[in-house]
């Protein structure tokens, strides 16, 4: 197969959802369609249950599971699909945000009963930053959910995206009878507990056909006709370029656990989801068609075995062909490295690969060379843009309990922050080290790993901050003055960038108003 064809058959995406909406279940069904797994139940949920917050073995197990299922590659109808998994637990949301920089599109799962939930909102905000194309799967139609028109309105309003129904449900809960596919003009009937397959799709030339009344009853058939007329009048045909621009999201209704409505979504996905696109770098856009290889690291995973410090860096290939044993240029370190055992992720088994194409994710063994956002090239000196760091939400002071281990602690915290486990800030004019995380569980992981892997014993003291803003200004004097006057609330990040640590929204807004010459950024580019 030619290089161009390899690129054009690749679709790299992630499924995002609020925990429990059905991401794991949907993943499993997609893998079944792709033939990557044979039986249901093969995909382990990567959830950490609430009670396990202090159960470190659980965290360890969790880390093992999530590396195995981090990237799942499967083929479907000639397409090669890379599904990048994202942690379900909100305390690891940062990991999810970064994974979203490595995909070309997302599928958003919404629970029809709960509608838009907190995590849905946050994840969509990240997608909107990059105009990532979104397909919505409204799940659990077999349960008594919200009114479907209300639900669509809620999603549109809350997530600030226009929706385009591709299928339309006939009732929900006990009365759920199936979905009507608006584009294909066929009816897919639902029978609880059984798997829908092609035989269940009834092709219709005309919604007026009395056959429908026979199948779903006159009342529901009339309701369907009314709904479809309304939807068609409002929406017309899907405008694929608006979907690709992240402005319109096609919507499917279904029930993942019953494998209902999933294949309809998958069939549309392979038709319309974007293939690898060009990406911005410090020296201009790089196209997947460029001959020369380039890619970036978006995730680093520590080894499960604490005696071995090697890690796995996840590299997204952006252009050219990645080849085993070939020397590539590590731009930040200005050093050439080759990889003898790169591997691909064919559902749950790791295979050494010879080459990889744009859109693919390669797992690279790393002994400490990489940090999040690093670029590899075939010699060029550019780096990829748009891999931001987001503001943490909980801040704590890192206190060393064992002064004899100061060096180990330094090294450990450096490596853990390289991995993106947490963010490190150092207060100006002092040595106070501040760790910023999204969730409390991350602090427990840090404490545990520093002790296990580096022999460093630490504790954390809560700090009253709620957000970090990165600061820039055209007037360097003004910025300097601000940093001096606000010493208690300013620090530098790991790369030496100044940040303002806000105690509350009120303080933040006051400082923004009082300092018009300083720009407060809510994210920072890694570089
Ligand atoms: P997540 O990865 O988004 O966190 O969700 P997951 O797939 O684990 O699904 C959460 C729960 O919702 C699971 O039940 C799952 O079986 C159920 N579920 C998924 N899709 C549907 C659906 O279409 N209809 C209904 N009624 N339920 C659905 P659980 O009891 O938490 O776990 P399990 O013991 O059943 O695996």
Number of helices: 14
CATH architecture of the largest domain: 3-Layer(aba) Sandwich
pLDDT < 50 stretches = 46-57
Topology-level CATH name of the largest domain: Rossmann fold
CATH superfamily of the largest domain: P-loop containing nucleotide triphosphate hydrolases
Q: Report the end-to-end length measured between terminal Cα atoms.
A: 37 Å
Q: What is the CA-based Rg, rounded? A: 25 Å
How much of the polypeptide forms β-strand, as a percent range? 25-35%
Structurally, the number of domains stands at 3
For the biggest β-sheet, the strand order reads 28-25-27-26-30-31-29-32
CATH class category name of the largest domain? Alpha Beta
Number of strands: 33
Major sheet attributes: 8 strands, antiparallel
Give the CA-based shape: globular
Overall mean confidence score, pLDDT = 87
What does this structure look like?
A hairpin with a 2-residue loop joins strand 19 (343-346) and strand 20 (349-352). The chain contains 14 helices and 33 strands. It has three domains: 3-272, 3-Layer(aba) Sandwich (Rossmann fold), CATH 3.40.50; 279-377, Rossmann fold, CATH 3.40.50; 394-521, Alpha-Beta Plaits, CATH 3.30.70.3280. The protein is of the alpha+beta class and 527 residues long. The strands form eight sheets. Strands 28-25-27-26-30-31-29-32 form an eight-stranded antiparallel beta sheet. A seven-stranded mixed beta sheet has the order 2-3-1-4-5-11-6, with helices on both faces. A six-stranded antiparallel beta sheet has the order 18-17-23-14-15-22. The structure holds guanosine-5',3'-tetraphosphate (G4P). Guanosine-5',3'-tetraphosphate (G4P) binds at residues 17, 19-25, 45, 47, 88, 139-140, 142-143, 255-258.
């Amino acid at each position: 197969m030619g290089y161009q064809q390899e690129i054009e058959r690749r679709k790299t995406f992630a499924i995002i959802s609020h925990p429990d909406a059905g991401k794991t279940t949907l993943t499993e069904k997609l893998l079944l369609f792709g033939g990557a797994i044979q039986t249901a139940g093969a995909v382990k949920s990567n959830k950490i249950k609430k009670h396990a917050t202090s159960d470190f073995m659980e965290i360890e197990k969790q880390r093992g599971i999530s590396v195995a299922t981090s990237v799942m590659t499967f083929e479907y109808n000639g397409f090669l699909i890379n599904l990048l998994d994202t942690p379900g637990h909100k305390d690891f949301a940062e990991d999810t945000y970064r994974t979203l920089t490595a995909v070309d599109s997302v599928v958003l799962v919404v629970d029809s009963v709960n509608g838009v939930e907190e995590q849905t909102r946050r994840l969509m905000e990240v997608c909107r930053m990059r105009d990532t194309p979104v397909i919505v799967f409204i799940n659990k139609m077999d349960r008594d959910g919200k009114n479907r028109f209300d639900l669509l309105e809620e999603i549109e309003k809350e997530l600030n995206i226009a929706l385009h129904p591709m299928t339309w449900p006939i009732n929900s809960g006990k009365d759920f009878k199936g979905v009507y596919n608006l584009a294909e003009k066929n009816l897919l009937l639902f029978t609880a507990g059984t798997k829908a397959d092609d035989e269940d799709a009834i092709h219709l030339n005309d919604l007026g056909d009395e056959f429908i009344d026979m199948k779903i009853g006159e009342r529901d058939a009339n309701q369907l006709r009314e709904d479809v007329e309304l939807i068609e009048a409002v929406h017309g045909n899907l405008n694929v370029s608006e979907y690709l621009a992240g402005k319109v999201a096609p919507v499917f209704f279904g029930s993942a656990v019953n494998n209902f409505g999933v294949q309809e979504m998958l069939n549309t996905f392979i038709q319309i989801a974007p293939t690898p696109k060009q990406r911005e770098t410090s020296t201009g856009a790089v196209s997947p068609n460029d001959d020369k290889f380039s890619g970036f690291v978006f995730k680093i995973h520590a080894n499960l075995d604490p005696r071995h410090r090697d890690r796995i860096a996840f590299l997204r290939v952006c252009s050219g062909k990645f080849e085993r044993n070939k020397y590539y240029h590590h731009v930040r370190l200005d050093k050439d490295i080759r990889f003898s055992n790169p591997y691909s992720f064919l559902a749950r088994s790791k295979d050494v690969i010879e080459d990889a194409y744009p859109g693919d994710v390669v797992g690279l063994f790393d002994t400490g060379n990489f940090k999040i956002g690093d670029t590899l090239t075939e010699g060029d000196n550019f780096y990829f843009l748009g891999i931001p760091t987001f503001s943490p939400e909980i801040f704590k002071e890192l206190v060393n309990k064992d002064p004899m281990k100061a060096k180990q602690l330094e090294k450990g915290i450096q490596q853990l922050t390289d991995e993106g486990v947490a963010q490190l800030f150092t207060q100006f004019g002092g040595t106070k080290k501040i760790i910023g995380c999204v969730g409390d569980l991350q602090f427990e992981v840090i404490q545990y790993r520093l002790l296990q892997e580096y022999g460093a014993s630490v504790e954390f003291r809560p700090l009253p901050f709620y957000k970090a803003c990165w600061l820039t200004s055209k007037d360097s004097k003004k910025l300097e003055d601000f940093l001096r006057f606000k010493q208690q609330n300013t620090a530098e990040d790991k790369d030496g960038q100044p940040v303002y640590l806000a105690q509350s929204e009120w303080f933040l807004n006051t400082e923004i108003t009082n300092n018009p010459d300083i720009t407060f950024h809510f994210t920072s580019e890694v570089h």
